[in-house]
Design a protein that fits this description.
Oligomer: single chain
Order of helices and strands: HHEEHEEHEEHEEEHEEHEHHHHHHH
Strand content: 15-25%
Helix content: 40-55%
Structural class: alpha+beta
Strand order of the largest sheet: 3-4-9-6-8-7
Number of strands: 12
């Protein structure tokens, strides 16, 4: 009987032991598939973040009011290599004939005559804004804001629900200053073109404008009208520039720094720095996945090694006889490998289902931590573990390596002895 037939006969004869090996190989395969898929998902998140952060740079004011003249930023937009510019401006506004969402189960100041306060954020393009680009906020209805818009806004779904607003409705808004008076800007009537959802990290000053639910995004032109500015004296709080070729980002920045701007009142930073808040948790998460993958690999080898060592000790008489009649160690090892590979193959279907369930449950469970910023959670939630053909093939390859290592280590302990010694020990 050749080694292939002996392998099949052993699996059929030892049904209980084969069943135990089946269960163990299923767990090992499922664990390997789970950690590999989670690591790949984390890699996709990091790649997405790098794609966003490596695309350009931003400029901010160092002054207390945070203002930069827009015409200064227009010079930056004309530098060779700059692809596009995103102007952003933040402020606090008062809703007219509408109600802001109130904070639940938390201290909230009596705003009195200050009115229904919301935060507004003027942007050139809402899809390029950090929170929408990272996935922390997502558009639920309607469309995004573009550079050609005027008098258009996006509102949070909770604010829309509070006031029974829908896409296409028009609302009134005016600017608000700390003294409780309105700025020189006039009251504006704007149209809701989109409704978004999501939750951001919030400061707590006790005002309704702190809440993500009371955040309104508007086109940049309208944000200037709201504060009484026009094209001749427009201001920005942040100017975010994308470059045509991300690999030449440093070269473009060097050209920008040669411009005669008011550098003592503004700072320039790469967008990697803008994303540091979300990059660090992502890197930590990936390090955890790498550690988990290594641990599963080592643990699988050790567990399988111990099980095989126990099994081979029970079969030492069988192997001793085979070796004494001229069967080589290579054939015996090939028989053991075939036995395990057969069990692993038959258990793989169940392992795929179990691995998929474990990966998604474990991955989702890790994201429940309050220490992970909402921006990070949204990035991960958009990249939950998914299994592809390449993922399955990689898992099979890793499992085959685990089996091979466990067999080599365990057989080295027993089969390296001479047949006579093996049989004498058995007697």
């Amino acid at each position: 009987m050749d080694w292939k037939k002996r392998a099949g006969a052993y699996l059929v004869r030892k049904k209980i032991r084969t069943g135990i090996l089946f269960f163990i190989m299923m767990l090992i395969t499922a664990a390997v598939l789970a950690v590999l898929s989670m690591q790949e998902s984390t890699g996709r998140v990091q790649e997405k973040l790098l794609d966003l952060s490596n695309s350009g740079f931003q400029m901010e004011s160092l002054l207390q009011d945070g203002n930069i003249e827009q015409k200064e930023m227009a010079k930056v937009g004309q530098v060779e290599g700059v692809k596009d510019a995103q102007y952003e401006m933040d402020g606090i506004g008062q809703l007219e004939d509408a109600k802001a969402v109130e904070r639940e189960q938390a201290v909230q100041l009596d705003q009195g005559k200050m009115g229904e306060l919301v935060s507004y954020h003027g942007v050139t393009s809402s899809s390029q804004e950090l929170n929408f680009a990272s996935g922390a906020l997502s558009l639920k209805e309607g469309r995004a804001l573009t550079k050609d818009d005027s008098g258009k806004v996006l509102v949070h779904e909770e604010l829309a629900k509070e006031n029974n607003w829908t896409v296409g409705d028009k609302i009134k808004l005016k600017n608000f200053q700390n003294e409780g008076t309105t700025a020189s800007g006039k009251e504006v009537t704007v149209e809701i073109v989109g409704i978004f959802n999501g939750k951001l990290s919030e400061q707590s000053t006790g005002l309704t404008s702190d809440l993500t639910e009371n955040r309104i995004y508007m086109d940049y032109k309208t944000s200037q009208t709201l504060i009484g500015k026009d094209e001749s004296n427009a201001i920005v709080h942040r100017a975010i520039f994308t470059v045509k070729d991300p690999s030449k980002l440093d070269e473009v920045i060097a050209k920008v720094k040669e411009l005669p701007l008011k550098w003592d009142s503004m700072q320039l930073s790469k967008n990697e720095q803008v994303f540091e808040q979300v990059a660090a948790p992502i890197q930590n998460f990936r390090s955890l996945m790498t550690l988990l993958t290594s641990s599963v690999f080592v643990l699988a080898v050790i567990v399988l090694f111990l099980i095989l060592l126990f099994t081979l000790r029970e079969r030492i008489h069988e192997f001793g006889i085979l070796m004494s009649v001229g069967i080589s160690r290579k054939e015996i090892i090939a028989q053991i490998l075939l036995e395990l590979y057969t069990v692993a193959a038959t258990s793989s279907i169940f392992a795929l289902m179990l691995g998929s369930f474990v990966a998604k449950q474990f991955y989702t469970g890790l994201l429940t931590s309050d220490e992970i910023p909402p921006q990070v959670k949204s990035l991960f939630e958009s990249s939950l573990p998914e299994f592809s053909l390449m993922q399955v093939l990689l898992t099979i390859g890793v499992v085959l390596i685990i089996i091979a290592l466990a067999v080599l280590f365990s057989t080295a302990v027993i089969l390296m002895k001479k047949p006579k010694k093996i049989l004498s020990q058995m007697n």
